[in-house]
């Protein structure tokens, strides 16, 4: 037993810490509303005691003694209790629903703000579906505090007190007999608490797995349909959902068990009271009204007691979600602002990019190995090579979405890890193969965070990116919503929107990541024309699969397995008859003029 005490003590201390964190950070701000709700809950809880107390005069004075002059008064009293209960229940439930939404949405916003600061290594390990469930699912579990726990601690406690007062006032001996088994609830409840906590954690993990599976299905629906994988993928989903149902059922069963134990304890108490009280009433020692008042009070008593008994299980389930939320918020970003003094961003025209012996790995698998690169300011440097060579990782490290394990990256001669993070990232305009568009208007997607852009400058960017070619076909022009991930636009249209966005961003370095690889010939020609205009006067790094798009680059760097194997211009690399020449031959059959 002594070996378990330290762990139990740590668990209790951890639970108290979680409760204090939730209280100070999220619930305390709702105190004014909660105080108002508590007043209404107190009225609601006390009315059930009033109803049981009114049964005594109704039976003794009206039904038994026949005092008809008391009927209206007692009837009005009964009606008043129900009106008060209906009114106060409506008010406090509405207030608690409002405060619950404020608390959960506030936490959701805080978690999202935190998650977007975490580096790519974290997001590499945690898929979007998993994170969506953590943000939405875990926080929504906290609504139980307002739906069940707070009403239990206020309304149900006052109900229990008022009903006990009626029962004790009627006959304290009956009350003791009826509740003699109540202490037997303590040990089973304590044993169930930890089990319910484990069940709650398992249920949340199962929910996250189901959300991840759904995210993969809906993002890959085209691949699923083309490959005839509908039955296969839905079968995998059903298996995941089966685990989820099993976990949720266990959790619900554990919570229900904690509440239902009160009924098991009540049974012998009720039987004994009926025997004892029945003999007293038959002997004329007690009235029927007293028994009915007591019987109603005890009968009403076990419902709030059952809810109070379930609070421990509900709280354990809340703690399971709260622990997951807190642990997620404790994850610290590895990409942070450097200490002062910070290196300045390079002066215009001096945006030389250099990688010196850089090594980087996701987990234990190296992506870049002793990688070195020089991209001269104002010139175009292209990165080519097979998939998995590490080309996109170069952009990831350059924009500090991750930091290398060793080596040094400089921009304008200064280490990028010593630059202000926002100022560093402002140096880059990026156009990727799958540039992110948001379910906002076309105007919002182009302007994004460029601030208050004059209309003439916006239209100039639209024309330069050839967005004006499809703009008239949109039902509301620039105010047309583009759909989730830009689904209302074609691939070529999305790329042109991304280029227009980059044109509005006064960034001296342009990063192009397979910007035309997924386009048809006509769209590629239009996008390439726009990209040529976009790159004028900028230091440009290009990742390209189609070698025809980079043959005019000032320097072409060939990568394999995270290393530079060749570099030079197009003609030089062809003459070397090495890796680049082989790639060229695969695409163009050896034609050097391609």
Give a written overview of the molecule.
The protein has 19 helices and 10 strands. The chain has 594 residues and is of the alpha/beta class. The chain has 2 domains: 18-330, ABC transporter type 1, transmembrane domain (ABC transporter transmembrane region fold, Up-down Bundle), CATH 1.20.1560; 353-588, Rossmann fold (3-Layer(aba) Sandwich). Strand 9 (555-560) and strand 10 (563-568) form a beta hairpin. Helix 2 runs parallel beside helix 6, helix 8 crosses helix 11 (288-330) and helix 10 packs antiparallel against helix 11. It starts with a helix and ends in a 6-residue tail after the last helix.
SSE topology sketch:
Layout: H1 5-27, H2 31-64, H3 71-115, H4 120-125, H5 128-141, H6 143-170, H7 172-178, H8 186-219, H9 221-226, H10 230-282, H11 288-330, E1 353-362, E2 365-375, E3 380-384, H12 391-398, E4 406-411, E5 414-415, H13 421-425, E6 428-432, H14 442-447, H15 455-464, H16 491-504, E7 509-513, H17 521-534, E8 539-543, E9 555-560, E10 563-568, H18 570-576, H19 579-588
Helix pairs in contact: 1-11, 2-3, 2-6, 2-11, 3-5, 3-6, 5-8, 5-11, 6-7, 6-11, 7-10, 8-10, 8-11, 10-11, 15-16, 16-17, 18-19
CATH class of the largest domain: Mainly Alpha
Biggest sheet descriptor: 6 strands, mixed
Give the averaged pLDDT, no decimals: 81
User: What would the CATH topology of the largest domain be?
Assistant: ABC transporter transmembrane region fold
List the strand order in the largest sheet: 6-7-8-3-9-10
Count helical runs: 19
CATH architect. name of the largest domain:
Up-down Bundle
Helix content: 55-70%
Helical/strand content category: alpha/beta
**Rg (C-alpha, Å):** 35 Å
